[in-house]
Amino acid sequence: MQPQIAELIDTELGKRWHEKRSLTLSRLYNRRYDAAQRKEARVTIWLAGALYILFSITDVILIKDIYFYSVVMRFFISIAYVLIIDFQLQRNFDLSVIDKQCAIGVFSGYAAWIWLSSYSQNSLSVSYYLTYGTIFMMITNLYFNFKFKLAALSSGLIVATLLISLFTIFNVNLEFIVAISVLYVSSYALTLFVNWKLNEERYRVFLNSLHAEIQQKEAIERGAALLRLSTTDALTGLANRRATDDELRALWEGWQSSRQGFAVVLIDIDYFKRFNDHYGHQEGDRCLVAVAGAMARATARHSCALGRFGGEEFIVLIRCESRDEAGLVAEEVRHAVESLRFVHEQRPDHIGFVTVSVGAAFSGDVGGDKVERLVTEADRALYGAKASGRNRVRVFDRNEPRKVDEDGTIADLLRSAVVEGRISLAYQPIREVESGRIVAAEALMRLTNTKGKPISPAAFIPVAERTGAIMELGRWAIATACRDLIGNDLVPVVSVNMSAVQLKAPGFALSVAAILGETGILPHRLALEVTEGLEIDNQPEIESCIRELKQLGVQVWLDDFGTGFAGLSCLRKIDFDVVKIDRSFLQASHAPKGAAMFRDMVGLLKNAGHAIVVEGIEDEEQLDFLAEQAVDLVQGFHLGKPMPLAAFKQVTVMESAEAAKRSGTAR
Ligand code: C2E
Ligand code: MG
Ligand code: MG
Fold first, then answer.
1. Each residue of 609-636: pLDDT tens digit?
2. CB of 396 within 8 A of CB of 381?
3. pLDDT over 90 percentage in the chain
4. Are 184 and 134 in contact (CB under 8 A)?
5. Residue 404: what pLDDT?
6. Which listed site, 123, 581, 596, 600, has its alpha carbon 20 to 30 Å from 54?
7. 457 CB less than 6 Å from ligand 1?
8. Residue 253 confidence (pLDDT)
C-alpha cells in the first residue's frame, strides 16, 4: 500500500491546476483535514457569532432608526447558529454538512442585514453601510476554511443578493450601483482566488507531509527489518546465535549482580546428519523448522528465550530458580519434539522418528565467574545425554559424582591415557577368503577407566575428537601398530583408523612420514582407514591430505562404505586401495532383497577395480555367501575377534606353524 500511495503522491504533485485530484488522496486529505478542522471549528464559529453581534455598534450609528430590530436579529441569528453548529460539532456530525450550514448561516446573516437595512430611512448611511457586505465574502472565502466550491457558491449568492436588492429594494442611483457592484465583484474574485490558492496550498502541504510520513515509516520499517534480520535465524525464525549470545550475557550479568537464576539448555537433534544424508537438505530444513516450532510452543509458557545455535543445535535460556525447574522445561522441550513423530527411518536405534538430546546447566550449580563454564557444563550434559542413548535430558549436577562414561572423566582419562598405560590396541585379523590366511590386521583402540573397566570406542573416540586428544592418540596408534605388527613381521599390512580431525590438521601426512622414518616401516605396509561418513567429498583439506598420504606410499582404505553420503562420487575422486563394506550390508543380506543389493554393491566395486574387505562376518553361512561373491578379504568375530598383541601373536604363530605343517604334509 505504502509504495502505491507514494507513487500517487508523486503524480499528484506533478498535476496542473485544472487536472482532477486523485480520489484516494482526496479521501485521505478529507479525513485528515476533518480532524484538524474540528479542532478549531468551535473557536471559529463562536468568534464569527461574536463578530456578527459586535456589528450591532455600527447598526446603532448607521441605521439608528431600526437598530433595535437589527440588534435583536443579530442576537437571534448568531445565538441560533452558534448553538446549532456547536452542538453538531460536539456530536461529531459530518464536517461537510456543518460547513454547508456555516455557509448558510453567513448568507442568512448577510441577507437579513440587507433586508432590514432597506427599511432604514437614512439612505446615505445605508449606502455606506452596504460596502460592509464584502466582509461577509471575506468570511466565507477566507475566514472559514470552506472548500472552493462552497466558498464560490456562498459568496456568489452574497453578490447576487446585493445586485438584486440594489435594483429592487434600495433606492440608489446608478453611479452607486456601479461603484458598489464593482467593489463586490472584485472582492468576490480576489477573495475567491485567495481561497483557491489556500486550498491548493493546504492540499500540497498535506501531500508533502504524507510523503514525508511514508518515507519515515519506510525508514523505520527498514531499520526494524534489518534489526530482525541480524538477530533472527532465517530458516527457523528463531533468535540467531548473536541474539542468544547477547541474551546469555544479559542473564549472566543478572546472575552476577542480583543472583537472578537461569539455566542454559542445549538441544541437539539426534542423528540429524543421517537424516539430511538420506532425505536431502530440503527435507532437513523442513525438519529443523518443525522441531523449532515444537520447541517454541513448548517454551512459550515459560520465561524462556529460544534460539538456534547453528546446524542442528538449539539453545533455550530459562529464567528459573532451581535445577529441577530447568530440568522440567528441558523435559517438556524433549517431549514436544518426540510428540511430533517426524519420521526418521535412518537412525540406527529403530526409534523411527526425530528426537532430541538435551543438556542443561543451572547458574546456581556452576561456579566460576565466566558464563562459558555454564555453557560448557550444559554441553557436557548434552554429550552425556547422547552417550547414554539419546532422546533424553541430562542436567548438570555438581553433587553427582561424574560417571565413567561422562565426557569430563573420559576427557581426563584420555589426557593421561598413554602415559598411564590405559590406552592399548586390539588387533583383529583380516583374512583372505580363499586361503583363510591372515593378510592384514586392523588396529582398534581400547581405553580402560581407572578401575580397569573398558570404555567403548563409540564413547571415547568422539570425546577425543572434540578435545583434540585424538591427534596424539592417533600418532601413538600408528606408531604402536607399526612397531607391534610390522616390526615383528606378524602380518603383511596393518590398518589403523583415522578421524576427520586428524586428516584436517595441517601437516598430518608429514607426521605419518616421521613415524614411518622412526619405525623404519615400508609405507605400503601401513593402511589408514578413512570412514565414509566423513563426507570426504566436501572437504578439500581432507582430500588433499589423503593425496599426500598416497604420495608417501601409504595405503588409504575406505571404511564403512555405504553408510555415508559420499558414496560413489567419493570413489571416483580418490583412488582407495581397499574399500571396506559396512557390516550392516552383510547383515541385511540374509533377505533376498538384501542379498541382491549386496551382490550389486560387490559387482560395482569390483568393476571399478577396487579390492574389497567385508566387515562383520559372524558365522559360516555368511562366509559361504561371500565366497560365492568372489570377495577377496573378510573380517569379523567369526574369523577372529579384536585381541591384544600377545593373543594376536599367538594366533599368527600357531597358524603359520599349521600352514607350514600342511605344506610339509602336502610335499
Ligand atoms: P570400525 O573401524 O568400522 O571398526 C570395526 C568395528 O567393528 C570394531 O568395533 C570391531 O570390534 C567391530 N567388529 C569387528 N568384527 C565384528 C563382527 O563380526 N560383528 C560385530 N558386531 N562387530 C564387529 P570397535 O572396536 O568398537 O570400534 C568401533 C569404531 O571405533 C571403529 O569402527 C572405528 O570407527 C572407531 N575406532 C576404533 N579404533 C580407532 C582408532 O584408533 N582411531 C579412530 N579414529 N577410530 C577408531
Ligand atoms: Mg575401521
Ligand atoms: Mg568399519
1. 889 999 999 999 999 999 888 898 999 9
2. yes
3. 60
4. yes
5. 43
6. 123
7. yes
8. 93
Here the cell at position 344 is 526418521
The sign of the torsion formed by the CA atoms of 13, 14, 16, 22 equals negative
Q: Could you tell me the pLDDT band of residue 451, with boundaries at 50, 70 and 90?
A: confident
User: 34: which 3 cell numbers?
Assistant: 476533518
Atom number, ligand 1, closest to the C-alpha of residue 638: 18
534 lines ligand 1 (CB under 6 A): no
Question: What are the chain's domains?
Answer: 2-216 (no CATH), 241-395 (3.30.70.270), 407-656 (3.20.20.450)
Q: Quick one: which atom of ligand 1 is closest to the CA of 496?
A: 41
Give the confidence band of 373 by pLDDT, cuts at 50, 70, 90.
confident
Sort 421 into a burial class: Cβ within 10 Å, 0-12 / 13-18 / 19+. exposed
Q: Where are the alpha helices (DSSP H) in 169-300?
A: 174-231, 241-258, 272-279, 281-300
For 126-182, the pLDDT digits (tens) are 989 999 999 999 999 999 989 999 999 999 999 999 999 999 988 888 999 999 999
Is the C-beta atom of 499 inside 6 A of ligand 1?
yes
pLDDT digits (tens, 9 = 90+) for 27-50: 888 888 887 788 888 899 999 999
Residue 647 phi/psi, 5-degree rounding, is: -65, -40
447, containing H or E segment: strand 438-448
Residue pLDDT, tens place only, 476-535: 999 999 999 998 999 999 999 998 889 988 889 999 999 999 999 999 999 999 987 555
C-alpha cell at 492: 603383511
CA of 582 to the centre of ligand 2 (A): 9
3-state SS track over 43-57: HHHHHHHHHHHHCHH
CA distance 358 to 378: 9
Q: Please compute the mean of the pLDDT values over residues 291-301 and round it to a whole number.
A: 95
Ligand nearest to the CA of 557: 2
Q: Is the CB of 425 under 6 A from ligand 1?
A: no
Q: 227 C-alpha to center of ligand 2: Å?
A: 49
**Rounded to two decimals, what is the model's pTM?**
0.50
Give residues with Cβ within 8 angstroms of 129, minimum separation 6: 58, 62, 63, 117
* Mean pLDDT, rounded, for 368-391: 84
Residue 408's pLDDT band (cuts 50, 70, 90): low
| CA nearest ligand 1 atom 28, residue | 457
Contact by Cβ (8 Å): 249, 262? no
Distance CA 22, CA 27 (A): 9
Strand order in the sheet with 313-319: 304-310, 313-319, 262-269, 356-362, 393-395
411 touches 384 (CB < 8 A): no
Other C-beta atoms closer than 10 Å to the C-beta of 641 total: 12
Of all helices (H) and strands (E), which one includes residue 117?
A: helix 95-117
Judged by phi (left if over 0) then psi (alpha if -120 to 50, else beta), residue 317 lies in beta
Residue 353 carries which DSSP code?
B
Other Cβ atoms closer than 10 A to 242:
13
Report whether 304 contacts 248 (CB < 8 A): no
From the CB of 558, is ligand 1 less than 6 Å away?
A: no
The pairing of strands 262-269 and 356-362 is: antiparallel
Rounded Cα distance between 489 and 142, Å, is 115
Of ligand 1's atoms, which has the minimum distance to the CA of residue 444? 38
